[in-house]
Amino acid sequence: MDSLLIPHVGGWLALLVTLHFTVDWVFQSHDEAMRKSRERRVRAKHCAVYTLPFALLLFLTSWDILRVTAMSWTVFLSHFVEDTYLPVLWWAKYVRKPPQMARRLVGEKGSWNIVENGVVRGFRTPKEVDVYDRLLGLGDQGLKQAQREIDLDGFIAFVSEPLGKILLIAIDQIVHILFLLPVAYMMASRP
What angle do CA 157, 158, 161 make, to 5 degrees? Predict the structure, then answer.
């Protein structure tokens, strides 16, 4: 391995991260930021605008169109996935495990309960009752969909608090930067 590869990757990564923060934060409207996680078209437009400066930088630093295309698609697709916030939701659900996300559905067809911190507590809120009503007759698919809805409600409650917001932003940015690592590596190892 080339002993200068790691410093070169670090240098390229620093440039890419600076570009990331500039393009992702400065050139994004509030409306776009609020809708992109739920609306594919809004997210695709945002990701195209986001990728354009990266593609220009990649083109200026590497005349190999195949490498530029591969790196540009890596930037676009990784940003498209991350801006769903699913990686952050999964981190919260499986790693952080905040109390707001401690609710699980258990039971069998037609007889489900919400279990919170190991205690069966049943359905209490109007939204939970609505979820329960829609579960009836849907079998396992209904259970999975209902659990996703309960997880999403818990996630929204978690990120509505100051610590949750800070962690949402931090984990989101860590994932964005990790997705830029292979691009930095491709840039540093170009012929």
Answer: 90
- CB 76, CB 70: distance < 8 Å: no
Q: What is each CA distance from 41 to 9, 22, 48, 53, in whole angstroms?
A: 33, 22, 10, 20
- 98 and 151 in contact (C-beta within 8 Å)? no
Segments of the chain with pLDDT less than 70: 1, 106-115, 117-142, 191
pLDDT tens-digit readout, 42-96: 999 999 999 999 999 988 887 789 989 999 999 999 999 999 999 999 999 999 9
Note the pLDDT of residue 182. Answer: 92
Q: What does the block give as tokens for 162?
A: 């100051």
User: Token pair for residue 91?
Assistant: 């981190």
Q: Do the beta carbons of residue 188 and residue 8 sit within 8 Å?
A: yes
List, in sequence order, the alpha helices (H) in 22-64: 30-35, 40-61
Joined together, the tokens standing for residue 114 give 């919400």
Give the pLDDT confidence score for residue 41 in this predicted structure. Answer: 97
Cα separation, 86 vs 48, in Å, equals 20
* Segment 80-84 long-range contacts (CB within 8 Å, at least 24 positions apart): 80/43, 80/44, 80/47, 82/172, 82/175, 82/176, 82/179, 83/36, 83/37, 83/43, 83/46, 83/47, 84/37, 84/43
Predicted TM-score (pTM) of the model is 0.81
